[in-house]
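User: Please predict the structure of the protein below. I'd like the answer in structure-token form so I can feed it into my own downstream comparison script.

Assistant: Understood. Taking the following sequence of 261 residues as input:
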Amino acid sequence: MRLHGRKIRAVLLAVAVFAGGASTSRAAERVTLRNGFVQLCHHHAQVEGRVRLYLTAGEDNYIEFAPEEIATVELVPDPPDPPAESATAPTPNAAPAATVHAARARLNPADLHEMLTRAGRAHHLDVDLLASVVKAESGGNAEAVSRAGAQGLMQLMPQTAAELGVEDSFAPEDNVRGGSAYLDALLTRYNDNLALALAAYNAGPAAVDKYHGIPPYAETRAYVARVIHEFNRRVLAREAEARRASQSTAKAAAGAQATNR
């Protein structure tokens, strides 16, 4: 899939979200596709001639492939959680915090979309990808602050924000500009592999490099799956809307043609 001129690998790949603790967690499945990609999922099933890979214990969160796209399916144990004080522990999801910037906490959706569109054009990123990251990171709350101290719409750590030239992480435009530049840099670093770039955005490039792939952190794997699932949902909805608009235009043109006869 081309996203404003750049090739994003693994758009349809996600990683497993494991439910429960060690006592209730079941073994995951490692699905190897014939194109070489490896997909972790909670379980799989064949539905209407397609193979669905379920990312959670429920039936709502899944991606699907044609049977011929799948090479092997293996059972694997759940990945270990990182130590509580690990230096490479992933950034927790954002939680709202009371700050002096409360008036900017909730942006108008149209203003946020315009802001993301500008950032996407500047960094050759699909606006729906940026919107998916914002939803996962902050839920659109410009004043969100995580337990680790990440700030704003795209949850920038103070040191990262400083390196990106972001003076005020609670200023939506600056935060989105910095977060988009950071994601762009990570995609370049990992050869446009979206799953790896998202893992690095969440857990840090050092963790991705250490494990030569997505780190075995349940939170990071859940984060990558969540963003990719939301991104796919938005892209499919956009394509469906475009088809409806095209059909409506064609129908109107046919009606006008019939009237003129």
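That's the full token string. The chain has two domains: 19-78, 92-261.
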